[in-house]
């Protein structure tokens, strides 16, 4: 995302792994067009100024807190608070912060409906899509359908469309995601760093982790949803091969922000922070690649990255997920949502592992945020270990994700009493001992 270009001052010093722009080429196959042509997107509605909220959290009007005797109630309370940020006129959760944050919030909404079977928010989700598919004002040449001036912004919305497709098989959502994949693919070049997508479409100066991780996850997800596909899988595999050789995955099994390039056109790890979302999206991409191929190598790598996060002093403190910006209280609105993205993808990885090794970590973070980072009306702040000060849509959308993955997302028990969750984790671990005697480490 665009903020990634201006965070050079916030460095986490790690060893470099250099790569040459003259190294092995990763040639991607041609794009296969969507099966159903999409109509021209509508003209974007003008936003009513009086509908724009500029303050959130403790300054919002009082809202009755939902009872929290079950995990479902806890999740619904966090979701209701997230939706209190929604601007009906604009059809998004924020009109003052980054546009992509609403794409993540839409994925949260779709995830809730997918995991619980509810369709209570379909009208809101469709209204959001109807409003946001128009060309964005700052990049009308994209032509709408989420084609923005940065490949990562497009990727977040495309993944939301994939999740919307999962709800009922509506082909339009899948076709939008395929259109977005084609748009992102245009910015894969061999001229810099021997492959990879540029994140910044206007300047084309930066190949970073998140744009390429999102593309990899999107391509792998499309492969599993387009019957008979081989092209998307080939693209996802080629992107991973390039990514693994690029140097962004460092010697500590953590992903730095992106690549820098010397005057001699040698690309190398830029040593910028190991943000939690960069660790998370690569977990999701590797998990989808495993589902598509059953290649155990993807799971082995994903587990190494996940374990590195849990062992990292900068990313996990006293068992609680953190980001490098938190110590100085310097997280911007983009960075405030990063941890929730990690939690979603860690839960996805956990779901294909027979021993469920990350369930306790996810539970601990959900409990910590609920008890220490929540106010009386179910708003959350950025530091899950607390204390609560104020909330934004990024903070709320981020903290909501551990709520949904806590038992509901991992175990599929939408009405499980909270007091029983730790017992469930122990029971599942005990059952997995026998299961692992008969199954491989990764399971479909």
Automatic annotation (TrEMBL):
Name of the featured protein: Glycoside hydrolase family 76 protein
Entry's Gene Ontology molecular function annotations: hydrolase activity
Upper lineage: Eukaryota, Fungi, Dikarya, Ascomycota, Pezizomycotina
Pfam families, per database record: Glyco_hydro_76
Signal peptide as annotated in the record: 1-25
Transmembrane feature ranges: 399-428
InterPro entries to which the protein is assigned, alphabetical: 6-hairpin_glycosidase_sf, Glyco_hydro_76, MUG_Protein
Organism: Podospora appendiculata
Keywords: Hydrolase, Membrane, Signal, Transmembrane, Transmembrane helix
GO terms, biological process: carbohydrate metabolic process
Entry-linked PANTHER family: MEIOTICALLY UP-REGULATED GENE 191 PROTEIN
Domain of life: Eukaryota
């Amino acid at each position: 995302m665009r903020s990634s270009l201006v965070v050079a001052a916030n460095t986490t010093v790690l060893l470099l792994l250099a790569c040459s722009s003259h190294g092995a080429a990763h040639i991607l196959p041609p794009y296969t067009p969507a099966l159903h042509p999409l109509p021209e997107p509508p003209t974007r509605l003008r936003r009513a100024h009086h509908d724009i909220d500029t303050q959130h959290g403790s300054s919002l009007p009082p809202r009755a807190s939902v009872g929290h005797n079950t995990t479902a109630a806890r999740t619904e309370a966090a979701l209701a608070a997230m939706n209190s940020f929604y601007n009906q006129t604009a059809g998004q959760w924020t009109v003052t912060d980054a546009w992509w944050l609403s794409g993540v919030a839409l994925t949260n909404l779709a995830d809730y409906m997918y995991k619980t079977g509810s369709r209570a928010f379909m009208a809101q989700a469709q209204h959001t899509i109807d409003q946001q598919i128009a060309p964005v004002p700052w990049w009308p040449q994209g032509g709408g359908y989420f084609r923005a001036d940065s490949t990562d912004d497009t990727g977040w919305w495309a993944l939301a469309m994939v999740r919307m497709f999962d709800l009922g098989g509506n082909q339009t959502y899948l076709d939008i995601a395929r259109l977005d994949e084609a748009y992102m693919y245009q910015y894969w070049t061999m001229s810099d760093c021997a492959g990879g997508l540029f994140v910044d479409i206007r300047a084309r100066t930066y190949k970073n982790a998140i744009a390429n991780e999102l593309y990899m996850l999107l391509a792998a997800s499309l492969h599993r949803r387009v019957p008979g596909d081989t092209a998307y899988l080939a693209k996802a595999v080629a992107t991973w091969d390039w990514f693994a050789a690029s140097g962004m995955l460092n010697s500590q099994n953590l992903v730095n922000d992106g690549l820098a390039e010397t005057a001699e056109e040698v690309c190398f790890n830029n040593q910028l922070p190991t943000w939690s979302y960069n660790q998370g999206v690569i977990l999701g991409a590797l998990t989808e690649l495993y589902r598509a191929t059953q290649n155990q190598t993807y799971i082995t790598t994903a587990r190494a990255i996940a374990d590195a996060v849990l062992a990292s002093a900068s990313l996990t403190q006293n068992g609680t997920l953190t980001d490098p910006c938190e110590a100085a209280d310097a997280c911007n609105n983009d960075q405030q949502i990063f941890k929730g993205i990690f939690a979603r993808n860690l839960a996805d990885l956990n779901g294909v592992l027979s021993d469920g090794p990350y369930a306790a970590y996810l539970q601990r973070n959900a409990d910590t945020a609920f008890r220490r980072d929540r106010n009386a009306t179910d708003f959350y702040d950025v530091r899950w270990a607390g204390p609560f000060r104020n909330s934004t849509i990024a903070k709320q959308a981020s903290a909501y994700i551990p709520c949904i993955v806590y038992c509901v997302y991992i175990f599929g028990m939408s009405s499980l009493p909270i007091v029983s969750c730790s017992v469930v984790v122990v029971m599942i671990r005990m059952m997995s001992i026998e299961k692992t005697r008969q199954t491989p480490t990764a399971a479909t």
